[in-house]
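anyone seen this seq b4? input:
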Amino acid sequence: MIGTIANTIAILIGSLVGSLVKQGLKEKYQLVLYTAMGLAATGLGIHAVVINMEDSIYPVLFIGSLALGGLAGTALDIEGRFDRLVNRTKKPAPDEGAESAKDAMEAEDAPRAGSPAEGLSTAIVLFCFGTLSILGPINSALRGDETFLFTNATLDLVTSLVLASTYGPIIAVAAGVLFAWQGSIFLLAQWVSPLLTADLMAEISIVGGFLILASGLSILEIKKISVMNFLPSLLVPPLWFWIMSLLPLAN
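predicted toks r here
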């Protein structure tokens, strides 16, 4: 768990520094960082899909995963619920005068980086569902090798700084999600190691790659995608493999 702890701390530090830097960054520089994050996410997503697609034993599983996961997430309104929760804490004070109203109108005309939910969902996908973040805890649990996680921590430090400079300290919440995610994988790898096959990891990585790509497209405003609503897609491959493992017993 040393690598996971290091990864979590790296995100917290990056989120803190990024939030502080944001106060001194002009809007044009924030937009540059925002665009850079979109390009990086798009590239990482494409890379993850291409690298893992050749290892897939169910070539259309990712399509079903995205469709079923997207339907489930939309039905649950995951992103909408999160947006409403965040917006509840950002209500303007009742005694704000005309000057505040004018500022609000001017803010509407300024370029917007996106909603907090979009930023947090992007962070969660980038931090949790990359190959290093998935294979790292497994290597740590089964081989005591923290190399993947230390490498991932370095990448996440930079990524969290860039994201926090755009979306603010809300990105730090992703550190807790990452700790729970990697910690769960770590424990699962110890308890049910025979189930964590290379085939399953390839399918999860493909779906994760598409979600990272979707985040990039949304950040670049090429296509608005509610990435958070697609997060349940990552649960479909494990469920499918579990169902397939039961079929021989039914015969």
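The CA atoms of residues 68 and 240 lie 12 Å apart. The two ends are 41 Å apart (CA to CA). kinda curious what u guys think
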